[in-house]
TrEMBL record:
Gene3D superfamilies: Citrate Synthase, domain 1, Cytochrome P450-Terp, domain 2. This is Citrate synthase. Keywords: Transferase. The keyword Disulfide bond does not apply. Residues 434-459 are annotated as: Disordered. The keyword ATP-binding does not apply. Belongs to the citrate synthase family. InterPro entries: Citrate_synth-like_lrg_a-sub, Citrate_synth-like_sm_a-sub, Citrate_synthase, Citrate_synthase_AS, Citrate_synthase_sf.
Amino acid sequence: MPSKETGQLRIVDSRTENAYLIPIHDNFIRAKDLMAITTPDPKGSDIEQKLTVLDNGFENVACMESEITLIDGNRGQIQYRGHPIQELFQNNDYEDVLYLLMWGKLPTQAEKLEVRRKFAAAMVPTKTVVDTIAAFPRNSDTYPMCLAGLCAFMSGDKVIANNRHTHKPSFHNNFEQADAAIIRTIAYYATTLALIHCHKRKLTFTNPDPNGSLIGNLLLMMGKTNKETGVGPDPEIQACLEKLWICYADHEMTNSTAGLLHAGSTLADPGSCAISALVCGFGPLHGGAIDLAYEALGKIKHPSFVPAYIEMVKSKKARLFGYGHRIYRTRDPRLSLIEELIEKNREKCDANPLLRVAFAIDKLANEDEYFVSRKLKANADLLGCFLYSALGFETDMITAIITLSRIPGGLAHWRETLDKPIKIWRPRQIYTGDRTDDVDTPGRQSLSSNEGPLKEKHGIQVRELNSGKSNKIPLKVKAILWAKSCFS
């Protein structure tokens, strides 16, 4: 729904005493409107300086208007396209939510089956992909293997590979091609994770079930099958992940989603955009914090050492990864949903030595005034990881699997941009270094007496001559210059 003007912000610039009325749209202003606020150049030239907004870390800057996910951090609410996350958690599975985020409605059974089959068809790896993963030592870090596997898949995808070699946008306003590429990208990444898991553990990769769900086929390909029959994915793990992934399906404009969209603004393909999101997602202050949290749990070793560790955190001699969230000023609504899943798997959680340490930390953190006063609680990503451990997933795969649950949400945001005006993201900066005032620049002292300043016409830089002759450039010459600038 397009935003409406709801008021005006009156600004008086104390430098000039000029007054401005900036439109307010649904409690936000457009940064571009602030460019109307100008001041004369302090150097005395006739160039006016436009006001710029500086916001290191984007703490109070919105970069998109979106209809996908609503987060109200003050009230502790999350909605996917108007559906409260609690309702979706109780009544739907991850496939439903993926479809809702991507295509704007809950699917029929026939629509779910159609998407399942498209995912499965793209999950069969080529020899190039298999060989790429097999080339890594089995003890390699998972992160570079994820990137390499996804790149190997993309190298054999003609539509994705050709995107950079066409002058016409491949996906913009071409939803049929975009949707097919989105599905393949998600399938490629799921298969990459399964191949990595199998390679590291010397397991046999199993091809997907043509009618299986995304999560079901991930488990099947990883070798996490029904313990009683040996056929099909483990039903207990699948049932848990179908609910858990709803909590991770999308979280509005996260760092990784912004990275994905930044890449997408260049008209990059969805696979490349997903890689941008993964690079962000594995960073130590983003999803990679989970790996650091598990490393800390491994060092603590036993619940009896937790009080000493907490004191180290309070004295800033150690860091408690996975606690606190920038968005929420109250309880994250996903936490109660994940806690519900933990209770359903309580026996498995209590049997895991690492989780006994984790729960001891969480108990103390919820009681200690230091954490309570700062509202530092385990975030949903960390809490959900306890379930992965309880279900038998090794720590080296957990962050990677979490990113798979999030990639479809990020690509839903990318899809949302495809019918919007094309605009590459190019933030500004505030220069704070040394500056020399008397530098020769085009249009100043470096010009000869018969040359004027450079001007841009139709995307071509043209220098106007100060002679009495006409400076009009023939159309044919313009065409030649244009062709050289575009294709040379």
